[in-house]
Amino acid sequence: EPEVTQTPSHQVTQMGQEVILRCVPISNHLYFYWYRQILGQKVEFLVSFYNNEISEKSEIFDDQFSVERPDGSNFTLKIRSTKLEDSAMYFCASSVGETQYFGPGTRLLVL
Amino acid sequence: QKEVEQDPGPLSVPEGAIVSLNCTYSNSAFQYFMWYRQYSRKGPELLMYTYSSGNKEDGRFTAQVDKSSKYISLFIRDSQPSDSATYLCASIGDDKIIFGKGTRLHILP
Questions:
Q1: Whether pLDDT at B1 is above 60
Q2: What is the pLDDT of residue A78?
Q3: How far apart are the C-alpha atoms of A94 and B2, rounded to whole Å?
Q4: How far is A49 from chain B (nearest CA, A)?
Q5: Is the predicted pLDDT of residue A107 greater than 70, yes or no?
Q6: Cis, peptide link before residue A25, omega less than 30° from 0
Q7: Residue of B nearest to A54 (CA)
Q8: Per residue in A47-92, pLDDT tens?
């Protein structure tokens, strides 16, 4: 069964450093999403992406964040200058209709 | 205003019992409702998906939506220890999923 994959599974970085989180959505899906989940809190929407552009973003998704689909398979989330409060699980999701399928997540720890 | 609310639990029930998980939502325009299961350190996994009001059954799981009261329920029959996880209710609003905080469920052997 096709699934969304994410790399790395864990990332530790120093505050102020740039990180890139990678996702490979399900191959025939057209819509892509990033969510994050701070430990003990709810899963929060960050951004949705369709047709090579952002279709919607939340207040969390400020200028420090960017997304890109550099080729036909990868979907990346870049955080330019990480802050301590960026420490969270980051989930990628993809969909072809209303149902979104999530990857296993990348656990980001900013020190 | 919190759009999807859910009691975080934890909820502990003995193996074999019927589990009832509930959420409320505030936006009457919501039409699609989902239940996700999330094991520790894993991504949310879609369990059930319903449109508008009514019931939907899949094996041991039944999802129920009552739009008049803005109430979403998930019932698990014959609960198993492997059902122990966090259950997230969610709805779709403005092209994004809005999650509840999740209810931690423990099935006691």
A1: no
A2: 97
A3: 25
A4: 10
A5: yes
A6: no
A7: B95
A8: 999 988 999 999 999 999 999 998 878 999 999 999 999 999 999 9
Q: Which two tokens stand for residue B88?
A: 């997230």
- In chain A, residues with a C-beta closer than 8 Å to the C-beta of B32 are 98
Contacts of B43 in chain A (CB under 8 A): 4, 6, 91, 102-105
**The residue type at B29:** A
CA distance A94 to A92: 7
Bridge-based pairing of strands B54-58 and A65-68 is unpaired
Mean pLDDT of chain B: 90
Mean pLDDT, to the nearest integer, of B5-15?
A: 91
Nearest-angstrom CA–CA distance, A62 and A69: 18
- In chain B, the residue whose alpha carbon lies closest to the alpha carbon of A43 is B99
**Interchain contact A24–B (C-beta under 8 A):** no
Nearest C-alpha in A relative to B101: A42
DSSP for residue A15 = T
Q: Is A57 on the interface with B (CB under 8 A)?
A: no
| Residue tagged 């890109």 (tokens) | A68
Q: CA-CA distance, B39 to B93, in Å (whole number)? A: 25
Contact A110, A82 (CB under 8 A): yes
Burial class of residue A93 (count of CB atoms within 10 Å of its CB; 0-12, 13-18, 19+):
buried
